[in-house]
Known about the structure:
With 252 residues, this protein is of the alpha/beta class. The chain has helices at residues 6-15, 70-74, 82-96, 130-136, 159-162, 181-187, 224-232, 237-240, and strands spanning 23-28, 32-37, 42-46, 104-105, 119-123, 139-144, 153-155, 168-172, 193-197, 215-221, 244-250. It is built from eight helices and eleven strands. Strand 5 (119-123), helix 4 (130-136) and strand 6 form a beta-alpha-beta unit. It is globular.
Amino acid sequence: MPEPGALARKLTAALACQAQGRVAQVVVGLGYTAAMLEDGRAGVAYTLRDQVQGGCGVFQGRRPLAGQGAAELLGLAVSRDPLEAAVGLAVAGALLSPGPAEATTGDVLDHLDLQPEDTVGMVGYFGPLVPEMRRRAGRLVIFERVDLPQGDILPQERARDLLPRCRVAIISATTLLNQTLEPLLEACAACREVVLLGPSTPLCPQVFAGTPVTMLSGVAVRDAPALLQVVAEAGGTRQFSRLVDKKNLRLR
């Protein structure tokens, strides 16, 4: 399994030939970060605001971001600074928009076969999915950033130990931002289904070749200016859901 950060490096390499032109606008919001290219395509990535540093000037990179080359900002996806990584991942999403032709639209649960005997491990809390997953699967275990267990929500540090006991894994794509995805995928090696989920998900299948990932579930932005405004006003998925299409790409 690749070392931490290897998949982000693989992503930047895969998109290098597409990273032409410049980035027209970047918005670093409290909930999400968004980037729009000169051609109007846009991408979005989660802002790990509780992990940023630097006082009132939290973005430490070269300014202004608007007008910089797409290739230069794409390269930030490999940064160990989660805010820089969010900018890079948002640019990657814009370069990949509107996603592969074979990607299907709709909710991830419409494309995921859950069985009553399945134990599902969810890394990151996807609240809208939880009731239906609990209904369809035998057990749902959620790993989040909590200090102590809260019912079936466990500290994220338990994920690597318990994911090998799961048949299905749902992993937030924010793990790309803090470079924790690779060890989680190693723990999922025996899972029947491994889904990388969330607006931060890069719909780039070649990046995940050789990993246990079976499905990528992300978004394609339909209305870039409106989405950037939502992000600038500290909005999240509930506010920009009407401005994107959910995309699901099965890898195997």
